[in-house]
Amino acid sequence: MEETIPFKNLHSREYQGHKKKVHSVAWNCTGTKLASGSVDQTARVWHIDLHGHGKIKDIELKGHADSVDQLCWDPKHADLIATASGDKTVRLWDARSGKCSQQTELSGENINITYKPDGTHVAVGNRDDELTILDVRKFKPIHRRKFNYEVNEIAWNMTGEMFLLTTGNGTVEVLSYPSLQPLETVMAHTAGCYCIAIDPKGRYFAVGSADSLVSLWDISEMLCVRTFTKLEWPVRTISFNHTGGFIASASEDLFIDISNVHTGRSVHQIPCRAAMNSVEWNPKYNLLAYAGDDKNKYQTDEGVFRIFGFESA
């Protein structure tokens, strides 16, 4: 069962285009395109040449009036993407034309967005700890709920029957879907939970916390299976690879940790020059996109992201 990958022989490539730092990177469902969302108020879609060194084509998605904090692709459609911005709007885009096809204005500054695995609903979280669920076809809110605690990243399980919220209280709140009735409160960490990832095989979810730990949970039993302890700063972003065998996690530490999910051991560290905001594995290949607070020698934002996993730099 143990996968071994010669991570130490693999390299990163850098992609430049944004004028300010990149907050979010996400792959489409076929693993051929990557989207990046930036403080420069734009998102970009990149055709990633997985094997060659072709000229990278990218297309700019313009229209937001504030930072694009998070974005996600339609899990069933390789060219549809949703963006959440501090300008209170959520937008759907066609990545082929770069045009916005739908938009709706919500009540606050949006910071988190995720699709239901069947592509029918989008959940959006804002700075005021309010959750809005949108029906993708009509692009209208079907649920709104304000929480009296800090809500961070949000996710559905693979079947879409459970909705998980990470909170500032160190808990994961498990709600049934679509009723949003509370099922369980998982006491996950001693400090706030910042990020969550669902294993692509549907067996586990992982939580990254301000206590610098990543915890791995059996989703059917809601039991903690193990913790990953390599980072020393609050964990900002985590991602499972396509097999569910590896997990990447990042923080203000100047490396990204890749650990074996089954053993808990760290197998590789990717050095970085700044705190990381977003890591995401490709859904088909062992390619990890990552973006952070990189600055150039004049101490201004670089606006780059990188992809690790190529056989040559």
Automatic annotation (TrEMBL):
Q: Does the keyword Repeat apply?
A: yes
Q: Spell out the InterPro entries in the cross-references.
A: Tex1/THOC3, WD40/YVTN_repeat-like_dom_sf, WD40_PAC1, WD40_repeat_CS, WD40_repeat_dom_sf, WD40_rpt
Q: Which positions does the entry assign to WD repeats? A: 15-49, 61-103, 186-227
Q: Name one GO cellular component term.
A: THO complex part of transcription export complex
* Domain of life of the native organism: Eukaryota
> Which Pfam family, an example, fits this chain?
Beta-prop_THOC3
Q: Which UniProt keywords apply?
A: Repeat, WD repeat
What is any one GO biological process for this UniProt entry?
A: mRNA export from nucleus
Family of this protein: Belongs to the THOC3 family.
In Swiss-Prot or TrEMBL terms, this protein is called THO complex subunit 3
Q: Which organism is it from?
A: Salix dunnii
